[in-house]
Amino acid sequence: MRKVYYSERSEKIDIKLNSIRDLKDLFVQIHEDLARDLYFRELYGNQKSNIDGIAGSNIEAFAFEKTRIRNLMPIDYNKRYKEHELFTLIELLHDYVSECKWDDFEETWMCNKEKGQRVFRDRINSILNIYDQGWELSTEGYIREWVNNGLGELIEAQYDNSDDEQYTEIQEAKKQFLRYGSTIDDKRSALLQLGRVMENVRREMTQLLPEKPDTEQLFHILNKYNLRHNNPNQHKDYDREIYYRWMFFIFLSAIDAYFQMKD
What's the gap between Cα 44 and its chain centre? Predict the structure, then answer.
């Protein structure tokens, strides 16, 4: 965990990162730290012993093949990344990071991908959270809007008592709504996915949730706010960025309550 020094503790400085250059500089430092600690041994190999890793002998070509973006790698302070390029690079590294340690008994390197990814996310999120509006690298490895106002548990919630199709729809809706670069149409599509989940359990939801009139209001929102019907009676004159976010968390809260009470 990073030590917080006096100026930050006493709020003498603003720690928010407002420029992509600031974010890039801190990202490169984190990458160097982890590379030195062998978290990218599987990806890069051992250059001193001329042993190639997953990326092979041409790291630039490897990154280009994976992302279709030229000149992402090798990583250094002199690169001038655009925001979408840096975010893409972070997601790429998350796919290949691992914690590697030498096993004397087996006389080989033992690498743990899950542990490596956890360390990588912790380090990267320490800077993504304070950049611009606030972002985070999810456990699935994609960058999304950071939800830090008490609603984060809804985003991370998993439901063992849901069927596979329901769970997939809920997870896809979360990803589509919050991911970096999500458009208004993407968010509307995510709301419709959550609406389908609620519609499929509408009878049980109405029975389980205590306030039946309030439960029916969920479907009123779906039907009257120009999400899935297009007729003169629809509410259309509203700020979609604001209202879609409100709808998203209302729907997620209802789904979360339903699956918890279903237990």
Answer: 25
Secondary structure string (H, E, C) spanning 97-142: CCEEEEECCCCEEEEEHHHHHHHHHHHHHHHHCCECCCEEECCCCC
H-run or E-run covering 223:
helix 212-224
Q: Distance (Å, rounded) from C-alpha 130 to C-alpha 106?
A: 42
**Tokens for 39?**
């978290």
Distance CA 32, CA 132 (A): 23
> What is the overall mean pLDDT for the chain?
90
Model pLDDT for residues 153-195, shown as the tens digit of each residue? 889 888 876 778 888 999 999 999 999 999 999 999 999 999 9
pTM score, whole prediction: 0.84
What's the chain's length in residues? 263
Domain boundaries in the chain? 15-145, 152-262
